[in-house]
From TrEMBL, chain A:
<feature type="transmembrane region" description="Helical">
    <location>
        <begin position="169"/>
        <end position="191"/>
    </location>
</feature>
<feature type="transmembrane region" description="Helical">
    <location>
        <begin position="86"/>
        <end position="103"/>
    </location>
</feature>
<feature type="transmembrane region" description="Helical">
    <location>
        <begin position="211"/>
        <end position="231"/>
    </location>
</feature>
<feature type="transmembrane region" description="Helical">
    <location>
        <begin position="115"/>
        <end position="134"/>
    </location>
</feature>
<dbReference type="InterPro" id="IPR037294">
    <property type="entry name" value="ABC_BtuC-like"/>
</dbReference>
<dbReference type="Pfam" id="PF01032">
    <property type="entry name" value="FecCD"/>
</dbReference>
<dbReference type="InterPro" id="IPR000522">
    <property type="entry name" value="ABC_transptr_permease_BtuC"/>
</dbReference>
<feature type="transmembrane region" description="Helical">
    <location>
        <begin position="261"/>
        <end position="285"/>
    </location>
</feature>
<comment type="similarity">
    <text>Belongs to the binding-protein-dependent transport system permease family. FecCD subfamily.</text>
</comment>
<keyword id="KW-0813">Transport</keyword>
<keyword id="KW-1003">Cell membrane</keyword>
<feature type="transmembrane region" description="Helical">
    <location>
        <begin position="297"/>
        <end position="315"/>
    </location>
</feature>
<keyword id="KW-0812">Transmembrane</keyword>
<feature type="transmembrane region" description="Helical">
    <location>
        <begin position="27"/>
        <end position="48"/>
    </location>
</feature>
<keyword id="KW-1133">Transmembrane helix</keyword>
<feature type="transmembrane region" description="Helical">
    <location>
        <begin position="140"/>
        <end position="162"/>
    </location>
</feature>
<feature type="transmembrane region" description="Helical">
    <location>
        <begin position="327"/>
        <end position="348"/>
    </location>
</feature>
């Protein structure tokens, strides 16, 4: 198949053909993505070395190349405490970033975020009830059932608000999430203090209890939903031109929106079931992304939001872990302190429209 | 003229009397019902004189009556704070919890408790610190929300309030996690629970109630005109800026008193004024009605909080959030179009 005309160089796109597969890559954005990914990997290695027992980066490299063996204690700290925690932080951050990016494009509302819309609280409530009263289920069923809770809340918010693109929609979601958190808190209060303590930490969102067991589920669901969202990315680019134009150009609106909503909710529910209720990443990550690479293609926004989200959660968890040693701040609190100013900046930028 | 005044008084007296009767009913119920049911006759006995030998009397005297008084005063303060905010901002979503006053007041008290030089946080200092913190955060909210061509719209001020509240709460949580001593001192109070109501603060705060109520009465007489718009109010000879300033100080004082006594309790200031203003449009009449209604609602909410999860008690603030959060969502859906 030949192209009818040559792509002008000025757009910055580069055509790649591998057999029957054709791709258009934006050079600058691809470079930025690769840089962000390498930054994330470097951040992971740096974060592992930090903590109450310092392990120098140089020492880490020596250990990995097999030149030096660590003491069993240091080995355990590294592989059983820090590594799963750091990996989970990156995974969950990426999930939240993706979830926020797709919710924002779906609702066409820059303030959409699973935490603000009550979707997160819906998942928390379902998963909490399952943990407390349900039979023991395989690990995968918690995020799946949590998704249903999140979808119900999303449906309720949309039903009350009727339109999704304005701030009113977000405020109604906030009201619903307050109600659901009151319900969650009521359940927690009725428990014995010893049972409630770990659950309370989980509701606030903390990576302190991270283990390797939950990593496969988290990674698997992240991958599945990422692929789903990437599949919808082109349609959602077209949808940003408006519903009528999109329909005219052959986008199946209902199906695309349903997939986006399902994937976004499931990502948020997965994050809830693994580390608990972390807020603000879904809100900030897409905006930081668009600040750097612009809002030209949903695929690159998604990929970059995932990277930025991972970086954000990694950074806030590491700050909370290291800044006040020997005490630890939960990542959720550090994030709120970073996230609210960003929220206010967003509000400031839209001050003339609201 | 005379008949008009009389009919005005007459019209005012009926809803007030009705609310007073309701309040008496709720209070009686509050005192009688609990994990231990107390007979009505014991209650009447207590009116005749305290009998140290009677277990019922001791429960009433040391546990339920102080808590009831705290509930009534806190509820009235929260309601009035909400009414003033709604009138001053012409915003039916105005409420100390939503607009950041509660979070600011909590943060101020926690900071004062944690401060190394040991600021006094008991007696009259506590409500004053709380009122200052609440007022300052509210000021930040309205300054931020006033930016832009459209001025201070309903949406912006509500959203800014929520955002600033979230920031203040995060800072509060961080302080409490890092400082165990402070956490021990404020643990029960923090969650907004009348079970942790501080009686010393209650008595000290009653002195602050006097100027706050006087300010509220003065402001309410101007709010009717202010409801017609700043220009009309100015034309009617009202100094809008002065009324706003006094009104905000009074709202912050009421909120500070409530938070100092019982911790941050939300939504009473949202529900009661909105309910009252559906029937009464006159702000002067609204003040006593909202005070009575707020007292009644909080006593009722606290009664429910003590009973719904027996043998556990839930914090009072949770009971009010349970009712208030859906009310907020519905109000947003109705008010903002």
């Amino acid at each position: 198949m030949t192209m009818p005309f040559k792509q002008p160089r000025a757009t910055g796109y580069h055509q790649i053909t591998i057999g029957r597969l054709e791709m258009r890559l934006h050079i600058l954005r691809s470079v930025i993505l690769v840089l962000a990914a390498s930054g994330l990997i470097a951040g992971v290695f740096w974060a592992i070395t930090l903590g109450s027992q310092d392990i120098l980066p140089a020492g880490l490299i020596a250990v990995m190349s097999g030149d030096v063996t660590l003491s069993p204690t240091a080995q355990a700290i590294l592989t059983e405490l820090r590594l799963p925690r750091v990996v989970l932080a990156v995974l969950c951050g990426a999930m939240l970033g993706l979830s926020g990016a797709s919710m924002q494009s779906l609702t066409r509302n820059g303030l959409a975020d699973p935490g603000l819309l009550g979707v997160r609280e819906g998942s928390i409530l379902v998963i909490l009830c399952l943990t407390l009263f349900g039979p023991s289920l395989p690990a995968i069923s918690y995020p799946v059932l949590g998704t249903i809770g999140g979808l119900l809340v999303a449906a309720m918010t949309v039903a009350i608000a009727r339109s999704t693109s304005n701030l009113r929609f977000v405020l109604i979601g906030i009201g619903l999430s307050w109600f659901l958190s009151a319900l969650v808190a009521m359940i927690l209060v009725s428990l014995d203090a010893s049972d409630a303590q770990p659950l309370l930490l989980w509701v606030t969102g903390s990576l302190a209890s991270a283990t390797w067991d939950i990593v496969p589920v988290a990674a698997g669901l992240l991958l599945v939903n990422f692929v789903l969202l990437l599949g919808c990315a082109r349609a959602s680019d077209v949808m940003s031109l408006g519903a009528q134009t999109a329909t005219g150009l052959g986008v199946r609106l209902g199906r695309t929106s349903a997939i986006q909503l399902l994937a976004a909710t499931m990502l948020s529910a997965t994050c809830v079931s693994t580390i608990g209720g972390i807020g603000f990443i879904g809100l900030i990550a897409p905006h930081l992304t668009k600040l750097v690479i612009g809002n030209h293609s949903q695929a690159s926004v998604l990929a970059a939001s995932a990277l930025v989200g991972g970086l954000l959660l990694l950074a806030s968890d590491t700050i909370g872990r290291v800044a006040f040693l020997p005490l630890q701040l939960p990542a959720g609190i550090v994030l709120a302190m970073i996230g609210v100013p960003v929220l206010l900046i967003l509000l400031w930028k839209r001050r003339d429209e609201l | 003229m005379r008949t008009e005044r009389l009919s005005g008084v007459h019209m005012a007296s009926r809803p007030i009397l009705g609310l007073v009767a309701m309040l008496v009913l709720i209070s009686t119920l509050y005192l009688i019902v609990g994990p231990r049911l107390i007979g009505f006759d014991s209650l009447l006995d207590l009116a005749n004189g305290f009998d140290a030998g009677s277990f019922d009397h001791r429960v009433l005297q040391t546990i339920r009556m102080p808590r009831l008084v705290a509930a009534l005063i806190t509820g009235a303060c929260l309601g009035l704070s909400g009414l003033l905010l709604q009138g001053l901002l012409r915003n039916p979503l105005g409420e100390p919890h939503i607009l950041g006053l509660n979070a600011g007041a909590t943060l101020a008290v926690v900071v004062a408790t944690a401060a190394p030089m040991g600021l006094a946080t008991d007696g009259i200092a506590r409500p004053l610190i709380a009122a200052t913190g609440g007022g300052l955060l509210f000021l930040a909210t309205i300054v931020f929300a006033s930016a832009g061509k459209s001025g201070m719209t309903l949406l912006k001020v509500t959203f800014c309030g929520i955002a600033f509240s979230a920031l203040a709460s995060a800072v509060t949580s961080a302080i409490l996690i890092l400082d165990d001593d402070t956490l021990d001192q404020v643990r029960l109070w923090m969650v907004g629970d009348l079970a942790g109501a501080r009686m010393d603060t209650l008595w000290a705060s009653s002195w602050l109630l006097v100027p706050a109520v006087i300010a509220a009465l003065y402001v309410s007489s101007c709010l009717n005109a202010l409801a017609l718009g700043d220009d009309v109010a100015t034309g009617l000879g009202i100094s809008v800026r002065r009324v706003r300033l006094i009104g905000i100080i009074a709202a912050a004082l009421f909120c500070g008193i409530a938070v100092a006594i019982a911790g941050p309790i939300g939504f009473v200031g949202l529900i009661v004024p909105n309910l009252v203003r559906r029937f009464v449009s006159d702000y002067r009449l609204s003040v006593p009605l909202v005070a009575l209604g707020g007292a009644g609602l909080l006593a009722l909410a606290d009664l429910a909080a003590r009973l719904v999860m027996l043998p556990h008690e839930i914090p009072t603030g949770l009971a009010t959030a349970f009712v208030g959060a859906p009310v907020f969502s519905i109000l947003v859906a109705r008010v903002l179009r």
